[in-house]
Fold:
Amino acid sequence: MVAPRPWTTLARKTLLKRWWMTLRVDRVQLPAGPVLDEYHVVEYPDWACALALTDDGDAVLVEQYRYGVGRALLELPAGMIDPGEDPEVAARRELLEETGYGARQWDALGRLAVEPGRHTNYGHLFVARGAHRVAAPALEATEDLRVRVVPARELPALVEAGEIAHGIHAAAVFWALAKGWLDEPGARGGV
Structure:
């Protein structure tokens, strides 16, 4: 079977450049010949998130208002990976900064394209087991969030109810569920 052919970039123009994102418009030719004069692409840095699980079978989440959808959502602690930073190091940093929690064992779930049609970045997903409070959260001036600790077994229902609505975070929940890491305390092993 032959793989789909790549598009050809005919021109590229930067419309907006900020420290955290670049918006560009490309002129591209599709493999069958048609040309798209304006195909918008957003360049974002990769980011990392942590599904933090305590020994008691709870998950450590954050609740914050999301302007794009106009409401508060439950999410995994997450944030941008700094230039040159290892994704796991970023996930550990974000968990500590946003929640004050650390964890004994870290397992990489994988990475997923955030929106591969128009965004250039990936989300790196981790499960942090043996999560425990080690400090107070150290929020940035732009962050207004609350730490929420919920039974891990309730995470799939929170996704289905739309309380956890971030697609990559929902993927992390179901990926961890498939690996058996959302089971009752003691059933996960290795923590």
